[in-house]
Design goal:
FAD/NAD(P)-binding domain, seven-stranded mixed sheet, oxidoreductase, globular, metal ion binding, 3 domains, 31 strands, about 900 residues, Jelly Rolls, 18 helices, FAD-dependent oxidoreductase
């Protein structure tokens, strides 16, 4: 009997320690957030600021900040404001800009203030392309600093090194509802924490909460038949299930006092870096790969034998985090990321990786990384690390030049110790693509692009084809797939070297227009109690490649946190909010309102509206509720320009349509700027009940026969609302169909090879000459362009400066009417300035591609010369002068 009792006690003890029936730590919370990524961090702060009393943030590591910190992407990919971009230079056709806003701006302000104090500059790396930089460990401290007040108050509980393994699902309602998650310590599979939550946000790297909850999601490439995207492949024949945007194991290296080479990594093969290899061209040209290399950047470009490629040298400047020559630190640190084939494609894995995966489970080598368990992902991760170290070894041994100091090389750099990891590499790879939550609405490529005209491959300064009625924040970027394919030598197969290559339909030449992110893309199509965040949201694979930047992921998290807070306070499921206009406005108010909840978020993608402007909130809120008269190309709101009677009347008419009291009488002062008018209008109506949406059927809100799941506009019957064809006004067309007198002198600014234009005097940018009677104070003959975009040469050509230039013309004393035209027939231009006789005529003017700005003024010429100045000293943008017309004033 005693033996039986002892055995029973032993069994109870065993199960209590080792089984799923073990005693768990139990926790009840209002909002559970899974993942310490930048999106999870932002969701927690946003919800806390909105008064959610109990928030539990569970992450699978120790670092907050995702791609900023533990993934080591330490050069910020973002939109910074007019004339400023992240990667790329100002003129790049794929880069467009917003002002920083919301939590992203708060974070970056603190990072740059820290950099200034420690390194003497907000961007201590002086990177060639101009992004803000930081040390990952220092950025992580700032993430934690912003979160800490809510941890100290007890509003947020932070739990590290845990991941979800099981979910509680309540299936009694119309939709299944996630009510809790079970978490296991990293390295085990046995849960020791059970968190019950009213609402959960999945901001994890791989959508782990979505997966264990059983919510629907998609992975891999989308065929064209799924969402009708013009750039999607017709079939998935060449797109296996594990093909997706590659991961990259970034490295942070810092300057050493001497040579600090790393050991030769296992399986190092110089042929993996053929684009910049030390091998000779004669050796290279005999390499035959088993996949065609046709797309841009995929065909190897080899330097002469023994020489380094210029692309190898660019790693010193493109992603330099700290420049030791100019900062207080005196040591250079560099981010190594996406250089020389560092990316790690996830399809057609090398033999040793496939073999290790198959040993864990038959078929594992063909699984998408999203679906792999943690042990299987570690096999992928280990080889991605090895591959990155091979790159560093390649740089240290075969790149011995440096642009600013020929005596140094990568042998003078070592891996940073800031991550406190055994291999001195970041804890995680940079993750570009996760699962895609099957959401109430899946964002499609065609929503974000106006598919018109021969320049459809390039970014145009215009609003997108669809401006979602439930939009929560602005975004724009190119559909940026890195090379997703992997090709091997025909002679050696997957046991030999490989390089990455670009697959058809997975390119980076297509760019979105200025777009919105809809609330519906955060909400699962079927499951309640759950919201997506980070890269686990509702969009196609193509769109996912464009919404993955630092600022975008923070905005997604902030939007999810605001949606959760309103859902909890209103005691409704998030899926109801897009159909309830009052609740939708509450979410927008949480993101962009006159409150103490932090910096307001840019909702509507205006280019020229900064959060510091007094009208920022009013303009964003009115635009989002469709109360402003907008045109597709009017991306500048111009808040400080006068509110014309016509514009005021149109705004009032649209505003009244949004109110439940359409007969409301408002009396607003005259002589207001557009921004002041919006401020007073918003102040007068924000407390007035908004007109509710009329939902005709549960699955087709507007009754147009297009199911809500496929209807981007929801309450606009028929096809998505199209922008009206835009006609340029007479002061925007650049044409000379004006009533100039026969005494007018017309000057065209063009190159010397441009044929003479009847009725125009040609200025080729040459210095002033008395015999000619006009010219420049400096030689601008190289600063002339001809676009060949419009038939009239006088508006197709222009002279430009990026700084400041002065033009003079000999004229008798008297009064003159001067008309100036600026703009570019082929590209958008921002920040254009023109002064006539010392009087500002055009100030900080932006023109879109193919549009112009004409302005006239009357001046007195008293010294026998008319003086026209273009550009502005210290400017970083172009002023493009097309033509000038001079005539005696009436």
């Amino acid at each position: 009997m005693k033996k039986k009792i002892v055995l029973l006690c032993w069994l109870l003890c065993f199960f209590s320690k080792n089984s799923l029936f073990a005693q768990q730590a139990e926790e009840q919370t209002d909002l559970l957030i899974v993942g310490g990524t930048e999106s999870g961090w932002a969701a927690a702060i946003q919800a806390a600021r909105l008064g959610v009393k109990s928030i539990t943030l569970v992450l699978d590591g120790d670092w907050l900040g995702g791609q900023y910190t533990e993934q080591a992407l330490a050069c910020v990919d973002e939109n910074k404001g007019p004339g400023k971009v992240g990667w790329g230079v100002d003129w790049h056709p794929m880069k467009r800009s917003f002002h920083r806003s919301g939590l992203f701006k708060e974070l970056m302000d603190r990072i740059e203030a820290f950099n200034t104090q420690k390194y003497g500059s907000p961007m201590p790396g002086r990177p060639f392309h101009g992004p803000s930089t930081f040390r990952p460990a220092e950025a992580e401290a700032i993430f934690r600093e912003l979160l800490q007040p809510y941890i100290q108050s007890g509003q947020i509980r932070l739990i590290t090194r845990h991941y979800p393994v099981k979910a509680d699902i309540d299936r009694r309602g119309t939709h299944p509802r996630l009510t809790g998650l079970w978490f296991a310590p990293v390295g085990t599979e046995t849960p020791d924490l059970h968190v019950r939550a009213r609402l959960t946000i999945d901001a994890s790297d791989w959508g782990e909460a979505i997966q264990v909850a059983g919510a629907a999601f998609e992975i891999g490439a989308d065929p064209q038949s799924r969402y009708g995207e013009p750039s999607a492949p017709l079939t998935l024949k060449d797109y296996p299930p594990n093909e997706m945007n590659p991961i990259t194991w970034a490295m942070i290296v810092e300057e050493s006092d001497g040579d600090t080479p790393i050991p030769k990594p296992e399986r190092y093969d110089d042929r993996c870096f053929v684009r910049t290899s030390k091998l000779s061209f004669a050796e290279m040209k005999h390499l035959e790969w088993d996949r065609p290399l046709k797309k841009m950047g995929s065909i190897p470009h080899w330097p002469p034998a023994g020489q380094a490629s210029p692309r190898q040298l660019s790693v010193f400047t493109v992603r330099r985090i700290v420049d030791g020559y100019t900062s207080k630190h005196h040591k250079t640190s560099i981010l190594l990321n996406y250089m020389l084939g560092q990316d790690y494609p996830l399809e057609r894995l090398p033999h040793h990786v496939s073999e290790a995966l198959e040993a864990t489970e038959p078929g594992a080598s063909m699984k998408n990384i999203v679906l792999m368990n943690r042990r299987q992902r570690e096999i992928i991760f280990d080889d991605a690390k090895r591959h990155s170290l091979c790159l560093l070894y390649h740089l240290q041994n075969f790149v011995h030049d440096r642009a600013d100091d020929q005596t140094n090389s990568f042998r003078h750099f070592h891996l940073s110790e800031e991550f406190n990891t055994p291999d001195q590499l970041p804890p995680k790879p940079y993750i570009r693509e996760s699962l895609r939550l099957k959401a109430m609405y899946m964002m499609r490529e065609q929503d974000g692009r106006n598919m018109d005209g021969p320049t459809k491959k390039f970014a145009r300064e215009r609003f997108s084809h669809v401006m979602y009625p439930d939009g929560l924040f602005a975004w724009q970027f190119h559909y940026d797939f890195h090379r997703t394919g992997r090709t091997y030598l025909k002679s050696e197969g997957n046991r030999g070297p490989w390089i990455d290559y670009e697959k058809p339909g997975r390119n980076t030449s297509l760019v979105s227009d200025r777009s919105l992110f809809p609330l519906r893309s955060l909400v699962p199509v079927e499951m309640d109690g759950l919201l997506g965040a980070q890269k686990n949201v509702g969009y196609s694979s193509i769109v996912s490649a464009a919404i993955r930047l630092h600022d975008q992921c923070i905005a997604i998290g902030q939007a999810a946190g605001a949606t959760a807070a309103v859902s909890l306070k209103e005691q409704v499921q998030p899926r109801e909010i897009p159909y309830n206009r009052r609740q939708l406005e509450r979410v927008r108010h949480a993101l962009c309102g006159e409150s103490e909840t932090g910096m307001a978020v840019l909702i509507w993608p205006f280019r020229d509206l900064a959060p510091a402007h007094p009208a920022f909130v009013a303009v964003n809120r009115l635009a989002a509720r469709e109360a402003l008269p907008l045109k597709v190309r009017e991306v500048d709101f111009r808040p400080d320009q006068p509110a014309t009677p016509e514009w005021r009347a149109a705004t009032m008419e649209l505003t009244m349509k949004t109110l439940q009291e359409p007969d409301l009488i408002l009396s607003l002062p005259d002589n207001l700027s557009r921004g002041e008018f919006c401020q007073k209008l918003w102040s007068a109506i924000q407390g007035v009940p908004i007109r509710p949406y009329q939902r005709l059927t549960p699955d087709d809100a507007d009754g147009d026969g297009i199911a809500d799941a496929d209807d981007p506009s929801l309450f606009t019957p028929g096809e998505p609302l199209q922008w009206m064809p835009e006609k340029l006004t007479t002061d925007q067309d650049g044409l000379l169909e004006k009533n100039f007198s026969n005494r007018a002198r017309k000057f065209n600014f063009a190159g010397s090879k441009t044929p003479a234009i009847s009725g125009f005097e040609a200025d080729h940018g040459l210095p002033f000459k008395e015999s000619r009677g006009f010219g420049w104070q400096q030689d601008l003959s190289r600063n002339v362009r001809e676009r060949k975009q419009v038939p009239e040469a006088y508006r197709d050509t222009f002279i430009f400066t990026r700084s400041h230039a002065t033009w003079e013309c000999v004229l008798p004393r008297g009064s003159y009417r001067v008309t100036v035209c600026v703009g570019d027939a082929g590209h958008e231009q921002v920040g254009q300035w023109v002064t006539v006789e010392g009087n500002p005529l055009i100030e900080d003017r932006a023109t879109v591609s193919g549009a112009f700005h004409e302005q006239s003024t009357t001046v007195d010429v008293s010294d026998g010369r008319l003086t026209v100045e273009i550009g502005k000293t210290g400017s970083t943008t172009n002023t493009c002068l097309n033509w000038i017309v001079l005539e005696p004033a009436p």
